[in-house]
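Lecture 7 notes: from sequence to structure.

We start with a single chain of 305 residues. Read the sequence below before looking at the structure.
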Amino acid sequence: MSIIRELLRRGDFVVTAELNPPKSASANVVRRRAGVLRGCVDAVNVTDNNRALVSMAAIPAATIVRAAGVEPIVQMTARDRNRIALQSDLLGAVALGLDQFLFMSGDDPKRGSDPEATNVRDLDGIGLVRMAVRMRDEGRFLSGEEIREPLDYVVGATASPFTKPTEADVTKTVEKARAGADFIQTQPVFDVAAFSRWLSEVRRQAGREVAVLAGVFTLRGAEQAERLRGIPGIEIPPAVGERIAKADDPESEGVALAVETVRALRALPGVNGVHLYAIEWPEGVARVVEGAGLLPRPRVKEAVG
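Now the structure, written as tokens:
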């Protein structure tokens, strides 16, 4: 049984984190990053060629993460696969015992390591959720063909609350919720008040309860903050960059800022958990979790038993 599903059912505050597979075939790098996060979070989102950069595939990386004692959430993007490959990969991942997935369109290849790559996008983010829910709940492929063995997994989707216009993302997020997503993971939040307004509107329009895991980014420096400003869906107020730039220890200041954000989000009605981002810096995640008073985390056996 999915630990995310069980923790949400119990009403626990869920803590997940990003784990970026390496740009190599090194299983040891995956194990090391997973080892740092073990015991700090409930599950890790194993990214699927994040930022359109070639890296180890998410499904095999997730099996390494699980063997290292951490519950994986497999990220699956539509950027690199058509609907045949997506459904095939989902079946294969479930056959390996993976049961938590996060579906998204994927970053534009033009912004990645190989701009000449084709952006497949046979399905959009909403279509991905509908595909996964139909396979699980109706036992049918998108073609209508029956799936003989029943499937059981958790369906996650993404949201970008700070995309302009905000109404456009509200509409997309509501559609994903109505399509049957079990949880929504958002892009990093740096403005809690603006996020609260977005969340209230999503809750009002969705018509069904869907868990929301608010994103929190741990900045390591002012240059990183400046680079993030160029990523669609991420909005960093100037004061945040200035605060990091003026700090004697930018990393510690970034951790402190993330801790403050986690605490503010935890006090916000309608937030079911947080998703912690720290690019290739799992130690930063561990520092935020400890600083925000989110330890100890429930053990898997306790959560699902």
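The chain is about 45% helix and 15% strand. Keep this in mind for problem set 3.
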